Every structure is written in C-alpha cells, then in structure tokens.
Amino acid sequence: MASVKQDIDLYLFECIDYFTFMTRMTCMQTFCASCALSFTVMDDDLAFYDQVSPIFGGKKYGIPPPTLCPDCRQQRRLSIVNERNFYTTTCGLCKKRTMTEHPSESGKTVYCRDCWFSDRWDSCSYGKDVDFTQPIFPQILELVRSVPALNLLAEGTNVNSDYIHYAGYAKNCYLIMHADFCEDCYYGYGFKKNTSCVDGFYNLSCQLCYDCVDVHSCYGLKGSQDCVNCSSSAFLRDCIGCKNCFLCAGLRNKEYCFENEQLSKADYEARVAAIDLSSYRQYQGCKVKRAEVEKNHPFKQLHTHNLENCSGDYLQNCKDTQCSFDCEDVERGKFLYQVVTGAKNVYDIYQYGLNLRESYECSIAGTESYGIRFTHNAHNSCAELLYCWYIQTSKNCFGCVNMNRKQYCIFNKQYTKQQYEELVPKIIDYMKKTGEWGEFFPTTFSPFGYNKSSAQMYYPLTKAEALKRGWKWDDSKEEPPVVSKIIAASMLPDAITDIPDDILNWAVECEVTNKPYKITPQELRFYREQNLPVPRRCPDQRHLDRFAQRNPRKFFDRPCAKCKKAIRTTYSPEEPETVYCEECYLTSVY
Ligand SMILES: [Zn+2]
Ligand SMILES: [Zn+2]
Ligand SMILES: [Zn+2]
User: Fold this and answer.
1) 8 Å CB contact between 191 and 201
2) Are 280 and 291 in contact, with CB atoms under 8 Å apart?
3) Protein residues placing their CB within 5 Å of the ion ligand 1
4) How far is the CA of 33 from the centre of ligand 1 (A)?
5) What is the number of other CB atoms lying within 10 angstroms of the CB of residue 90?
6) Cα(95) to centroid of ligand 2, in Å?
7) Beta strands in 66-135 (DSSP E)
8) pLDDT given for residue 26 in this prediction
9) What phi and psi, each to the nearest 5 degrees, are found at residue 155?
10) What separation in Å is there between the alpha carbon of 474 and the centre of ligand 1?
C-alpha cells in the first residue's frame, strides 16, 4: 500500500505547501516515528504548541513538536474511541441492567449514568501516588482499568434516549452517535439540531429527512446527498434551495424538476405519483437512477462553504483552519476532524467542539472547555487538563481518570493548589526523560479491539496487522436479539403497507452481514407515516453504506474536467464523477 502512504504524504505536503506557504517564513521537515514518512512542522505550528504549553510558577513547560505524522496521530486518537459497539452489562452500584461501550469480557466496572454522577462513590478513592521509578503512561493505564467508567457518553439532559453514545441533549432518540440537540431521531451519525430524521450521516438542522448524507437545513428530504435548504424532495444530489424536485443534481432554487427537467406543477405531480417509494424495489430503483443522473453532473472539487484561508474538505464557516475535515464554525485550527458548533485555537482534535478553545491532541473534547491537552473525553466546562481520561467539569487535573467536579488532582489523588503546582512540573520533567511528554495515549491504552474502534473506519487493518503492532482485536459476536422468529430480509413484503405489526416481534436477517436486527416501534411508525419501506440491512451496514457515499479524507490531483487546470480534490480519479474546479463549477450551476 505504498501508494496510499505516498498519497497521504503528498496531501500533507501539498496542503501545507499549496495553501499556506505564502504566510510562512520557516518550517522543519521531520520523519514520523511510526510510519517513517516525512512531514512538515511549520513555524506557526510551533507558535501554537508554545501557546498551549502549560505554565507553572511562572515557568512555561513547552510542548515539543509531534513525533508522529498527522495521520498516525489521528489514527492513535481514533483507536481508543468506540462509538458504535454496545454491550449489555450490570451497573456496579445499583445492579440495574444498562448498555455500555465496554465489552463484557473486559471485566470493566461500569456505572449507569445516575450512579456515576451521584455522590454514592468518589473517584478519588482510587487515587495513587506518582511513582518516579516507572514510566507515567502505565500508571495512568492502571487507573483506566480500575476506576469505574460511565456506561455511555451522553451529555446534558436526555429524555427517553438510552441508546445514544457520544451524544447529548436528546429526546426520544435511538442509536444516534456524534449527535446533539436532536428529537425523534434514529440511526444517525453526525446529527446536530435535527427533528424526526432517520438513517443519516451528517444531517444538520434538518427535519423529516430519511437516508440522507451531508444535508443542511433540509425538510422532508429522502435519499439525498450534499444538499442545503431543500424540502419535500427525493434523490437529490448537490442541490440548494430546491423544493418539490425528484432525481435531480446540481440545481439551485428550482421547483417541479424531475430528472433535471423543468416540468409544470401538474406534470411533476403526475410523474411523482407514478412512483411508490413505500415499495423497497422502487426505492432501490430510484437510488440506482440517482447515480445515473449524477453521471451528467459536474461536481465541485471540494465540499466547502464560506471559508477564509482554509484547507481540507467538508468544511463550513471556518477561518484559518488547515488540513481539517468535517468541521463547522472553527477559527484557527489544524488537523481537526469532526469539530463543530464552535472551536478556536485548537489542533489535533477528533470530535467535537461546542466552544472548545486552546486545546491540543484530544479525542472527544468540548462543551465550553479550554486548555485541554493529551486528553480523551473532556466535557462540560473543563479547563487546564493534562493526560486525563473521561473528565467532567474539572479543572487543573493531571493523569486523572473517570472523574467529575474535581480540581488539583493527580492520578485521582487530591492535592492543594500549591502541592499540585509543584508536583506537575516534576512529572513533566520526568516524562521528558521517559519520552512520554508531548505524546498522546498510545493505542495499547484502548479498552477496545482495534476493529471495534473508530480507527478501523479510516485506517483499516487486518487482524494480523493489528496484532503485529501489539494492538487488541475483538472477535466477539453481538448477543442476538431475543425474538420469536428471524426472517431473511429478502422474504419481507415489498411494500410498507404489507408489513404487519408482528414484525416488532421478529428479527430481520441483514442481506449483507446476515446479522439479525430488530425494527423498533418508533421506527416502524416513521416508515408508515412517511410511506417508506423497512430496511433490508442492519443498522451497522447502513452506516457503512452511508460512509462509503462520502469522499475519503484524502486529496487527489486531477485536471478540472472543463478548463483542464490542475486541481486538488477528494474525488478519486477512479470515481465516475465529473469534477470541476471551483470557478468552472460556479459558472455551470448558476
Ligand atoms: Zn506516520
Ligand atoms: Zn446504577
Ligand atoms: Zn475549471
């Protein structure tokens, strides 16, 4: 796979070189300690590391430049995150059955949300002294293994939404991840401020959208992708401000278009009435047709909107943000992935934002937090954290694990402010000697098999490759649902009108993975109300299918299909899409 590595290297080199060399004076070239590829550290990167370096007793403890290339750093952050695999367990305190991200065989003590946030236990009772005769990371890992974990990560007030993870402020939601402020939403990833959306990937401020990928401010949209401000339409791609359109691509502010052809209201309604989307066969037929319509449509080289001095893809409303993907409302950032709803002065973050500031090398950090460094999960007004793991509303903590509302703690042990400010610099000096200072938690920290982590989506490995690198692999099967019968997906009636209520007592066997999955009552109600067929694939497979519809986090060089100018795009040259440079695209759609 040398070509992939070369591509990544090329992308990093070029996106730095191409987009920002004008503003830079110096840079340093260095080699990744993991994959050995060269990467560049710019002088304003160094200025950033200096800016987020901690200060104790008036002395700055400088964060060194990274030793891993951006992709290896990103892979390391993702490898400790399990967003989509749930297991049933028993709360270690109240003994109630609960869902968790921790597999049963891990033996991890898990508390339900009510117990974890209660004063019925104290994470400081697991506190330890710092041992200066052994490295620091294994001492933190001991705490990761011993301190009781929160079952699933849900922020804020959640109502009737037990099956959500890395999500918050949800009402009547089921299996939504990387999601906030949603109501009546099921099977979504990257859902923000949605109502009644089902089966989506990156739906923002949407209502009644189904089977949509990368849609923004849309209403009543089905089977669509890359759309903004569209409503009462189906199978659209790259449309803005359209309503009552069907099977169209690249339209702006249109109504009554069918296969990109302008019709009268009456003709449009007659054409649409002839299609029954409640039939699984007809729905799938429209998906195939959408791909045909797209063949004649030029795509813009990148999915970006309202940017100022930025590089990356799937970016909206960002300023001075480089080498980033799937971000919105970010100012001065770099190497960010899925950082949304406000962030400033942040580097190397995997999820999520919500006014995260002055932070570096974190997975899952946000909600009014600042000064978060080398930390996995920091939520709700955290500040000045170093090397922490699952922290809520805490300030000035080092190497603390599964903690809520604490200050001046090290290794879950309480100190005074003065003691804290004396001891942490000693640990940092010691970590400089052990080579741990400036490094994020290693993948060996992960409580999850590499294949169950988010890293497997973007940096897939085989079992042999993962094991060779000393990383875990999880072959465990999910518990099958308790049902009276299992029906093969192909045996389901074609139309939603022929699906009996009794389906709620069955499991459907996924046509791809053969994994049995259940249809929930709220989901069945949605399909019936919206006149949509019951899905034939399990939720995980549907998630992977939607993921596959999006472009990779990787750049390719290809000529603009119109003016032949060299462009950088995330559309691979092997893909069938016709790709235009921004200028040619704008003249073609407006
Ligand atoms: Zn590397
Ligand atoms: Zn409990
Ligand atoms: Zn062009």
Assistant:
1) no
2) no
3) 32, 34-35, 69, 72
4) 7
5) 15
6) 6
7) 87-90, 97-100, 110-111
8) 64
9) -100, 155
10) 24
> Please, are residues 536 and 280 in contact by the beta-carbon 8 Å criterion?
yes
Q: Which two tokens stand for residue 432?
A: 């400089």
Q: Residue 342: phi, psi to the nearest 5? A: 95, 115
The alpha-helical segments, DSSP class H, found in 388-520 are: 417-434, 455-458, 463-468
- Taking Cα atoms as reference points, which of 317, 372, 328 lies closest to residue 354? 328
User: Looking at the predicted structure, is the pLDDT value of residue 17 above 60?
Assistant: no
Under the banding of pLDDT at 50, 70 and 90, the label for residue 320 is: very high
Distance 286 CA to ligand 2 centre (A): 47
Determine the distance from the C-alpha atom of residue 117 to the mean position of all C-alpha atoms in its chain, rounded to a whole number. Answer: 25
In the chain, the amino acid numbered 154 is: A
* C-alpha 579 to ligand 3 mean position (Å): 9
Question: Residue 449 is encoded by which pair of tokens?
Answer: 């098999």
464: Cβ–Cβ under 8 A, 6 or more apart, which residues? Answer: none
Structural contact between residues 270 and 256, judged by C-beta atoms closer than 8 angstroms = no
Tell me, what amino acid is at 99? Answer: M
Checking if the pLDDT of 278 tops 90, the result is yes
pTM of the model: 0.91
Whole-angstrom Cα distance, residue 196 to residue 465?
41
Q: Are 537 and 565 in contact (CB under 8 A)?
A: no
Q: For residue 330, which amino acid is it?
A: V
Query: Which one of the ligands is nearest to 12 CA?
Result: 1
pLDDT of 19 above 60? no
Rama region for 329: left / alpha / beta (φ>0; ψ in -120 to 50; rest): left
pLDDT tens for residues 503-550? 999 999 999 999 999 999 999 999 999 999 999 999 999 999 999 999
Helix (H, G, I), strand (E, B) or coil at 55: strand
Per-residue burial over 273-295, b if 16 or more Cβ lie within 10 Å, else e, is eebebbbbeebeebeeebeebbe
Within 8 A by CB and 6+ apart from 148, the residues are 92, 93, 109, 110, 111, 116, 121, 123, 402
Q: Please tell me the distance from the alpha carbon of residue 233 to that of residue 386, in angstroms, as a whole number.
A: 48
